[in-house]
Design a protein that fits this description.
Elements: E1 3-7, H1 12-23, E2 27-32, H2 39-48, E3 58-62, H3 68-77, E4 83-86, H4 93-98, H5 100-120, E5 125-131, H6 154-172, E6 177-183, E7 185-187, H7 206-214, E8 221-224, E9 236-237, E10 239-241, H8 242-258, E11 263-268, E12 274-275, H9 276-287, E13 293-296, E14 305-306, H10 311-317, H11 325-338
Parallel strand pairs: 1-2, 1-4, 2-3, 4-5, 5-6, 6-11, 7-10, 8-13, 9-14
Antiparallel strand pairs: 9-12
Helix pairs in contact: 1-2, 1-8, 5-6, 7-9, 9-11
Bound molecules: nicotinamide-adenine-dinucleotide (NAD) and UDP-4-deoxy-4-formamido-beta-L-arabinopyranose.
UDP-4-deoxy-4-formamido-beta-L-arabinopyranose (WQD) is lined by residues 91, 93, 131, 133, 185, 204-206, 209, 221-224, 235, 237, 276, 299, 302, 306.
């Protein structure tokens, strides 16, 4: 079993991945500055994994990835970090348009500082949270890893820049084992409803918005366009259950540690597309609550359809999604209904 450093481990995807990794027997050090999360998520991860509060299997270092001394604290907290999963970063597209320098600083400079400290510490195994956002407006679907990287917003450019940095690094020096994991639309929650997505303020993304309408926190969803070239006219996306995504990280890190040094680039998606209205209907069914919506103009920068071709991940990692849209909505509702105000309510 390995000891892993998880940057951004208190966040939405990080917390679910921490649980899956602990259950698989790995020991973890989480480095997070809690700028978009709460320590409560990790407390709940401990409970779900049946760990004592003081268990050395999950250590938490409060720190910023842009600070090398914070990163060194993370490395020193363990017995010897074997690999890193790098979730920490900023992820809101609209905010990245308004504050591009902050996005380049945290996402790109932060990743560069992490990679320098990994070099110093002689740790060369890394899984990086990349995003389907770097495909921009895909020319064809399903999208394969060979399709062009052509981001259309600053957030996407920062992900593309880090992917390039990783490629340059792995060609400059032997021994790096790197996975660039391109997530599609991560949604849902752990089936216990104890951990889930807890956005700050008004959600930008469809799924948390729909959940908050169902629970009564928001009045109605605005559906961005019903004139897209899709079966019902609303946008189609590849929604992936966050537990499937967490299991994808376990598969990727195990692959990296077992195989020869390599640079992997894989889509993590389900291969299935669902429209906005299908998500609304599935959520209404799972929650037995109405989700009021209004049809409005298209949102600038949106694509009609984005769906992954996940066959490479299946071939290389032996991984594929197992959970349906109905399960995504069931688990998302379990989290939202038990934690209507997210972690703030606890
Ligand atoms: P999140 O905001 O819930 O988690 C990110 C975590 O990083 C948070 O706990 C935050 O406090 C921490 N963090 C932010 N800046 C930091 C810094 N400077 N130093 C240390 N910690 C810092 O987001 P998430 O949805 O869990 O996403 C995780 C990663 O996956 C991000 O890199 C994101 O860009 C990427 N991603 C997310 C999605 C999505 O839709 N959720 C899709 C594709 C890719
Ligand atoms: C999904 C569909 C909207 C909100 C974003 C980022 C991407 C990645 C995942 C990080 C679209 C429609 C949405 C609403 C709506 N994140 N919608 N009303 O745009 O596919 O991807 O999150 O890497 O980078 O761009 O996800 O959830 O915002 O939208 O009608 O209030 O729902 O138009 O068709 P998207 P989303």
């Amino acid at each position: 079993m390995a000891q892993l450093l998880i940057t951004g481990g208190a966040g939405f995807i990080g917390s679910h991945t921490c649980l899956v990794l602990l259950e698989a027997g790995h020991d973890l050090v989480v480095l997070d500055d809690f700028s978009n999360s709460s320590p409560e998520s990790l407390k709940r991860v401990r409970q779900l994994a049946n760990l004592e509060g003081s268990s050395p299997r999950l250590q938490v270092v409060e720190g910023d990835i842009r600070s090398k001394s914070d990163l060194r604290k993370g490395f020193r907290a363990g017995k010897g970090i074997d690999a890193v999963i790098h979730f920490a970063g900023l992820k809101a597209v609209g905010e990245s348009v308004r504050e591009p320098l902050r996005y380049w600083d945290v996402n790109v400079a932060g990743s560069q500082s992490l990679l320098s400290v990994m070099q110093e510490e002689n740790c060369r195994t890394l899984a990086f949270s990349s995003s389907a956002t770097l495909y921009g407006l895909p020319e064809r679907v399903p999208v394969t890893e060979a399709d062009p990287v052509q981001p259309i917003n600053p957030y996407g450019f920062t992900k593309a820049a880090v992917e390039q940095m990783l490629e340059d690094l792995s060609s400059s020096e032997q021994g790096w084992r790197i996975a660039r994991l391109r997530y599609f639309n991560p949604v849902g929650a752990h089936p216990s409803g104890q951990i889930g997505e807890d956005p700050n303020g008004i959600p930008n993304n469809l799924f948390p918005f729909v959940s908050q309408v169902a629970v009564g926190r928001r009045q109605e969803l605005k559906v961005f366009g019903n004139d897209w070239p899709t079966p019902d006219g609303t946008g189609v996306r590849d929604y992936i259950h966050v537990m499937d995504l967490a299991e994808g990280h376990l598969a990727a890190i195990q692959h990296l540690m077992e195989q020869r040094p390599q640079l992997l680039t894989v889509n993590l998606g389900s291969g299935q597309g669902h429209s906005v209205l299908e998500v609304v209907q599935a959520f209404e069914k799972a929650s037995s609550r109405p989700v009021a919506y209004q049809l409005v103009e298209r949102r600038p920068g949106d694509a009609a359809t984005t769906v992954a071709d996940p066959s490479l991940a299946n071939r290389l990692l032996g991984w594929q999604t197992k959970r349906s849209l109905a399960e995504i909505c069931r688990d998302g509702w379990s989290w939202q209904s038990q934690n209507p105000e997210g972690y703030r309510g606890s």
